[in-house]
Amino acid sequence: MARDLLLEVGAEEIPASFIVPALEDLKRVLTERMADARLKHGEVRTFGTPRRLAVLVRDVANAGEDITKEVLGPSAKAAFDAQGKPTKAAEKFAESLKLSVDALGRTTTAKGEYLSARVEEKGRPAEAILQDALHAAVHGINFKKSMRWGDVDTAFARPVQWLVALLGDTELPVVLGDVKSGRTTYGHRFLAPGPITLKAPADYEAALEKAHVLADIGKRRAELVRKVNAAAKAAGAQLLEDEGLVDQVTNLVELPSPVVGSFEERHLDLPPEVLVQEMKSHQRYFSLTDAKGKLLPRFIAVSNTPVRDEQLSLRGYQRVLAARLADGRFFFDEDRRTPLADRVEKLGRVVWQGQLGTYLEKVERFRSLAGFLAQATGRAGEAATVERAATLSKADLVTGMVGEFPELQGVMGREYAKAGGEPDAVALAIFEHYLPRGAEDALPSQDAGALIGLADRLDSLCGIFAIGKAPSGAADPFALRRACLSIIRIVLGRGYRFSLSAAVDEALRLLAPKLANVKRKPGEAAPREQVLEFFRGRLKALWGEQHRTDVVEAVLAVGFDDLVAAKKRLEALSVLVGHSDFQPLAAAFKRVVNIVEKQGKDVAGGQTNPQRFTDEPEKNLHTAFTQARDRVGERVRADDFAGALKEITGLKPAVDTFFDKVMVMAEDKDLRENRIRFLTEIGALFNQVADFSKIQAETAAAA
């Protein structure tokens, strides 16, 4: 009979950001070990609060599954001597399996013939499997920071207080540090501090809820959202949405209990972002607005326990916030005493990256690159705004406010630029060059900020790749993946037409003095190729979310130097592959490609000579091709890729007739090579839109 499994690690308050990754590790290690041991089970759920990490596995089998497997021994040559008698190798192999040599079989592999045997491996009892699996799970959690306590050598996020390990009603032995497992858990620290004895894993969630703990993160989050929205409504206000703050507060409490507080109205003359950041970053308070979205002098704080004396509690919350807002006002007033322009020189003392220099050097590079992009995109009229905004764009990094709240960089630059009398366009560009900050963030609303943002990110991408610190696996310390996606979003969102490779070349040229002594590994691709391939990978992932992967590959294969054109080609091709008549078109093109790939390398360069055509079908195809080529060129220049594809599609009947009636591989060498050159030109016409050979034509009709 299947039984449920429960593992819980109880500890002192675990940091909120540690909880979800720790639960993922706990679940992964446990289920992997169970899978390796062939121990079947049902649903797996995780639970987490500041004081506990738990996993509940339903319907765990009583033992791992039995299997029969083939075991290979020594090679047949090594197993028998010249007289055909078994060698020591054969005898030891048989002995290890408790079989006679005569009972062994033979198996032929790619490396030759080997002695073999089919053996049955019995599944281990669940208790034995889980004892090892649970030990591995609790010791396999990777925390960003760990600590040791007492005299134990084991490290964990916080000191471990209790362990629960139950399989059905049976306790399993697990040790973590100086704590041994049992069946005792604990409820809310203040509302139900006593021990709770669990009879079975199925009782876990309900027992904790009765003890004022919402252990399921999803349920606790929903309850938090419900309560804070209700509190905001009761106060005649609206909650300023912040999903990240909701997630954080969810894992700071076991039972959310919100209260509404207030601060002095005079602080509303500070920038709203400052007020929100003061409440969010240090205090984890939710901000409140009126119906029009204007910030109110009120907030919601969430306690881990229902408040008995609300006024006493509020005085504490409000006193702490008042001190924080006083600090914010001090920074704001002091920072405005020094104009942004006077702070630029101080950037020369702030290192951006050891090998690539200071922020001042970075600003000088991307200011020049932004000017290049303004010219390349036809925005030369923005040059003066771009020049001034780029110069000031990082100056707020050396202000007191940004030093305290790095999240406000750009925001404070905008505010201090306005206070210093800079034009509104310059102030806005300083703020917007950081946009988008994330996947859901807005794009810059004007060109100056967008161009500076592109230049800043291109400088980072090219510089970091050039010094050999490209992202690897999950490691991306300079957030280059996000930077690359932001560049793509800005370019497409604002419709900028320029050569991406030329922009990369210019960025690397500006970086050249810093790269003079960089040594490259033998065989390593040049930075230019690495950066462009990185863009290709991001485009493939981004566009692959909405379009067929093979269609994305087909478009990228013929280039993405003009990102806007590449996107238009993708959209046109995605429509075409959905038509029922696309499959035969793709098949015809692949036939062209196959011949060119196999025979084209042996054909000398040059153009097709129409005078060499002897058969009517090839003459007709050449006439149709010549007319289509001109029309396709016109359509491509006009960004009408759907029209270009329609012109290309119109060649299909003539191409089919050509292959049916004309022998491409003619005995006459000149005739044969002329036909191959012709097919090469036809392939090049197709490739103005996409590489059709990349498309899985057999699935196109089902698209």
Automatic annotation (TrEMBL):
Major enzyme class: ligase
A molecular function (GO) term: arginine-tRNA ligase activity
Gene Ontology annotations of biological process type: arginyl-tRNA aminoacylation; glycyl-tRNA aminoacylation
Subcellular location: Cytoplasm
Catalytic function, reaction form: tRNA(Gly) + glycine + ATP = glycyl-tRNA(Gly) + AMP + diphosphate
EC number: 6.1.1.14
InterPro entries: DALR_anticod-bd, Gly-tRNA-synth_bsu, Gly-tRNA-synth_heterodimer
Gene Ontology CC annotations of this record: cytosol
Chief localization: cytoplasm
Cell inner membrane keyword on record: no
Quaternary structure note: Tetramer of two alpha and two beta subunits.
Family: Belongs to the class-II aminoacyl-tRNA synthetase family.
PANTHER family recorded: GLYCINE--TRNA LIGASE, CHLOROPLASTIC_MITOCHONDRIAL 2 (PTHR30075:SF2), GLYCYL-TRNA SYNTHETASE (PTHR30075)
Protein name per its UniProtKB record: Glycine--tRNA ligase beta subunit
